[in-house]
């Protein structure tokens, strides 16, 4: 078994890893961005037998249009992720369970919910002696739970927050305090934290406005068999019933949630201009380089309040204790933050660093 980091190790770059096992070549995610619209360099990868998607966020699926370079292989993912990502446009979809055993071209796999996004999963290849790929995961999800991680000898883990340890309650308290002071616009992705924020602020008594993308996502999750559990569906249904629909003529009122996350497109971009000086603009996730979110926050025209969707350092410690890997890659974190994180974590796993020379790629292998 051999795992090569094509992209995503040593940077907040697009997720893309190549697993070679049992005579199969399997691409783990094929993302785009989040910074500078970056895509993985696949020029020397050659044909692969399958693509596996962990979840439906662009930095994990956004470069699927490159699948033709790889022989247009079948795409393995959950049915909900496939629908949100529109993955059927790029290859045959072969569904994976949200939680359970399956196989990918005779390679045994185990999946579990990753708590980060609707339909998102972690996936282990090859049993206890194999590889666990967490995708993005979060132990603090309001709507999307995370299943216990299994043991594996190799690990590729989401480490996007590095040594950060402030719990989600910190962000919730800050948003509630700001919402009490007046209208608030949150540019957020519909397939993730946007709906979690809507649920909690609605339950706190604030009027909620949803853009068409968020409304459509709630409707999909309420109808889809891979959607949230019954209690969480009920919470979403109450938000949908109470929320006012947002459009380009909407006035500042209560808490408005609009795509897209960095305000580079969609209704969020329009409303930021229309509501300037009349509502607080608040970004809650990664502010991608070169986007409106980064510019507005840097100029003091918008605020940043983090809403946790990635693991804290303490969660990574728990992950290492549960999985007990021999080797691990901690992904989606640039240097020097990556070195600071690995220095702070307990052994005995050997942490694989990124290659200094971009012509070379970091590798983990067994056997």
From TrEMBL:
Lineage: superkingdom: Bacteria
SMART domains: Lactamase_B
Keyword Zinc listed: no
Annotated Metallo-beta-lactamase domain residues: 13-176
InterPro entries for this protein: MBL (IPR050698), Metallo-B-lactamas (IPR001279), RibonucZ/Hydroxyglut_hydro (IPR036866)
Cross-referenced Pfam families: Lactamase_B (PF00753)
Gene3D superfamilies noted in UniProt: 3.40.50.10890, Ribonuclease Z/Hydroxyacylglutathione hydrolase-like
Keywords in alphabetical order: Exonuclease, Hydrolase, Nuclease
Entry GO MF terms: exonuclease activity; RNA endonuclease activity
Coiled-coil segments: none
PANTHER family found in the cross-reference section: CLEAVAGE AND POLYADENYLATION SPECIFICITY FACTOR FAMILY MEMBER (PTHR11203), INTEGRATOR COMPLEX SUBUNIT 11 (PTHR11203:SF37)
Name used for this protein in its record: RNA processing exonuclease, beta-lactamase fold, Cft2 family
Native organism: Devosia enhydra
Lineage, uppermost ranks: Bacteria, Pseudomonadati, Pseudomonadota, Alphaproteobacteria, Hyphomicrobiales
